[in-house]
Amino acid sequence: MNRIYRAMPWIIILFTMWVIANINLKKDYGTGVIEADGKGYFSYLPAIFIYHDLNFGFFYDIERVKYYKENLYYNYIRVHNNHIFNKYYAGTALAMMPFYLIGHGMTLITGSDPDGYSYWYTLMVHLGTLFYLFAGLIAIRKLLRAYGIRENFIAFTLGSIVFGTNLFYYTAVEFSMSHVYSFAFIAWFVYTVHLYFEKPKGSLIIISGVLLGIIALIRPVNLVILLSLPFIAGSREKFTAGLKELITFRLSTIAGILACGAIGGLQLLIYKLQTGSFFVYSYQGEGFNFLKPHIPEVLFSYRKGLFLYTPLLLFTLVGFRYLYKQSRFSAWWLAIFFIVLTYIISSWHMWFYGGSFSQRVYIDFYIFFAILLALAYQSIRPPSLQKAFITFTFVLVLFCQFQTYQYRHMIIHWSDMNKEKYWEVMFKLPK
Predict the structure, then answer these.
(1) Among the four 187, 363, 383, 393, which has the fewest Cβ within 10 Å?
(2) SS3 288
(3) In this structure, what DSSP letter does residue 85 have?
């Protein structure tokens, strides 16, 4: 049985691939599977490798002519200093790049249209998303083993965190969004930093710096992950000792900082090439309003409530009880991290984040929910209560899958849900 538990990441990937095959493989990958923000992330790749044009002169030919679909058209270009540039950051494209290049090779081999958007390009990028999901699951598995979680509970946790949340949807359907990529890099960052605080090494500082640079290049706001460092350390003593060791490994620390800055700074270089300026605020007319956060709406609203559409995440918080027993320091710092993260997320002017299933921006940080869920699975007593909790979370996984199916078939609206609509479609299936 332990072999099956250890194989859970593979089982998840194979099942998800089967779902993808049933949903998408009969479609033309070039005309309908990259949507909204994903168009902006993806477009860096044809801009660099096919058209050699970071001012996106090909945009209208591709988006308004060759692959135009009225309900999928999305304008991601903006203007600064009379030059066109991409609204979105380049980190997601960097993560996609190896698979995009494989797609380019397959396009040339098969004689397909090498326009940067045809079948093989997007198919291989989608398969690449499975790689990042797998990588994130491996990092979580390694971290949970370091926490002393048993294999069966690790397997339950991995299955729950994928199929019981919107992580599954953003892998299987809207794969071009940034969240699965951030999920993977943040998971590895947390695991690498955990190793460092357990046994400081210079190489771990450099690796952490590289990962942090990629995290920032994908979504700069995700640098909030730095606030979780005390929790990752596990105790005040380890945290303090780890900070002191940064001085001992000062060359590695400098190298890690430079690596982080160089990778994150790629966006500034791109802006310079596009507009002539290093510093550009690409989200023109959008931003944070920290004086008017929408915390209750983000967590509980019928429109996009995190705990309404992914209720499993609410019950992962049971793990705080057992984390607190192990380390009050860790529990308090994780709580502080969650509070600050939610405050930042809820302060964005569009707190519901446009078209999305549940609160998609939390996906990036699901490793923390996974830790809490694993602690709950393993620590709840007596055994009868433990079995009841596991059974209940399984029901929540099924519920999330049902709502995912509803969302994919537009029964749950992509943006405009309210109390009346929610209860009207509660058990509705597509005709």
Answers:
(1) 383
(2) strand
(3) E
